[in-house]
């Protein structure tokens, strides 16, 4: 069953109830006929998966079919989908897919909340999770090779590279006085390949996160660099609690997937107020085109607030309130993650 998100500093705005309310807003009572049909379809999907497992079919074929089937059901039965999620999670077939250390970590949430930095390290194939992968069964490692190369995971690795490139381009333009803020920074893996960090063209790179384990890991990994890891929440930023100063670049890569529109707009406005003239704010969000969303919400117990291109524009326009700025919305290569940027006028 779903675990509650940890509220590390008593100030978290990201709760399971809030995310689910935004993703699956309450409306008219469920259509009982549609719910019966949907349950029958999910039962058949899980039965086929069970039969394939018993027949010792190729794990890649089994998980590929399941992901496609769950996505199709989610699209078809969106109004009753929240009622179907427990059916999948409680079915015996789930144990097969939880052999995958990535899927299991997401479902069990060892840090108490969704999308933690170690989960993202599974996507990166980072050395810090190598022991977890090694301890997995041969089946688990096979499934992991599939899930870490699923479309959403590929998009997350591209997101990391986009962040690195954006920081390096900013530093190339500004010079050694460049100041960067990462909101909900996790383990700040994008800094590991930064040319600007290696060449000393960053004055400070503040990595703000409300998970003390992530903050501690970042402090350890970037000791002696311009990276400044600090404990802080979205609510703290909104209240102006940290006195961080001004930045040339501020970005939030994995946060908006959990924020209601109203909070997303307030956070965007706050970040814009912290930019130097000519500074840029970048935020990323999983898009509505994610094809493995059904698997993520069921087997991985990982619900995200997916956004369309028009919804990203709505956040930008509401945040600017008519103010002039350079702005853009663009997709990553496989369209699973969408990006918004706002550049403050000089």
Distance between the termini: 50 Å
Mean pLDDT, to the nearest integer, reads 93
Structural class: alpha/beta
| Uncertain parts | 1-11
What percentage of residues falls in helices of 4 or more residues?
40-55%
Reported for the largest beta sheet, the result is: 7 strands, mixed
Q: Please tell me how large the radius of gyration is.
A: 21 Å
Order of helices and strands: HHHHHHHHHHEHEHEHEHEHHEE
Helix count from the secondary structure assignment: 16
Form type:
globular
Strand order of the largest sheet: 3-2-1-4-5-7-6
Number of strands: 7
Strand content: 5-15%
Q: What's the topology here?
A:
Layout: H1 16-23, H2 32-54, H3 59-76, H4 81-89, H5 94-97, H6 101-108, H7 117-124, H8 130-135, H9 138-147, H10 151-174, E1 179-183, H11 195-198, E2 204-209, H12 212-221, E3 227-231, H13 234-238, E4 247-252, H14 261-273, E5 275-286, H15 293-298, H16 309-320, E6 326-331, E7 337-343
Parallel strand pairs: 1-2, 1-4, 2-3, 4-5
Antiparallel strand pairs: 5-7, 6-7
Helix pairs in contact: 2-3, 2-4, 3-9, 14-16
